[in-house]
Amino acid sequence: MMHFWNVVVLLCCLATHSGGQKNTDFYTTVSTLSDLVHVEKQVKAELLGYVERLKVLRDNILNFVQDRQPYDDLTSPSAVSEYLKHPVHAFHLIKRMTAGLGAIEAHINKTREFDPLVNIEEWRKQRLLPWDEDFTGLAMSLVTLQDTYALDLHELAKGHLHTKIPRNRTIHGRLPLSARDCLNISQAALQWGLYDRAMDWAERAIAKAADEEPPTIPKQELETHHEAIVNKTNGEPVRDPTMRSADSKAQLFQELPADQEEQNYKRLCRGELLRTPKMDSKLRCRYYKGKDAFFTLHPIKLEEINLKPYIIVMRDVVQERDIEDLMAFAEPRLQRSTTYTGDGNAPSTRRTSSNAWRVG
């Protein structure tokens, strides 16, 4: 059971290995989430500082605009001309439109110097902030998570991770998904050709939007996306998704049979037992002293996992302090996991994991 939760948390949490590296990527693995939180605090500080400067500028502009002059009450051109014949009046008008307006201009230019976009764009260029592709990859990872662990869609939209396979288990979340969030996930699934998942998330977006006030997404945008999914399947016209018959749902969103290896992988991730009790009854645990009894003083604990092929796990070989040192060494070297595409290895577009390899 702990294996299930460890993997779920591994997939759910957003992380980055930053520190000013050029090729930083954002994943759905537990790594250095605090880096992004720290940058987010800096962004908020920049924006709040900018807002305060805008408030001061606003007050100065309002003071200038609302400072009524004697000629504001004059209604005829002749009256204004008569007023301006007075040299002191002319002095005040020229002063107002030079020194007075000049102060406003200087304040505006000073405010521009503190444009927060300069720092934000630089942080994004340095990959201290995520890119759009990171957001799309994260949305796709949620679909992968849902599919692998057979997560309940309604609970997932509420921010909870709930599965009944192989037993009822739930990780409660504190933030639900909005209709806009559900649409983003549906769009990612559609992009990957997962039309059944795309439709499920589109329907959840429609249901969410009906209860939102104010709505996070226009109804027209939802209907357009829903129609795009239907057109990608069999071209049936858009209709109320709640009125679909069971036959229609099966026809449009029937789950394709996957190969046994993938199914076994998902079952293992969910914590299901694939081995029979008879197979496990032949497995043993023992102490291993090594060739020539090299480990006599501190024998290694061996646990048999499988006989053919022979697979074992060696327990307590690496100490906790050594593991911590390895993790500290690997963390700044983490890179996006690669996938085999047939033409070679390519970075995964799904933010599911990152890794680092030490050779030699």
From TrEMBL:
What Pfam families does the database record attribute to this sequence? P4Ha_N
GO CC aspect terms: endoplasmic reticulum
The stretch of residues making up the signal peptide is 1-20
Q: Does the keyword Ligase apply?
A: no
Q: Which residues form the Prolyl 4-hydroxylase N-terminal domain?
A: 30-162
Q: What keywords is this UniProt entry annotated with? A: Signal
Q: Where is this region: Disordered?
A: 337-360
Domain of life where this protein originates: Eukaryota
MF terms from GO for this chain are: procollagen-proline 4-dioxygenase activity
Instruction: State what protein this is by name.
Output: Putative prolyl 4-hydroxylase subunit alpha-1
Q: Whose protein is this, by species?
A: Ixodes ricinus
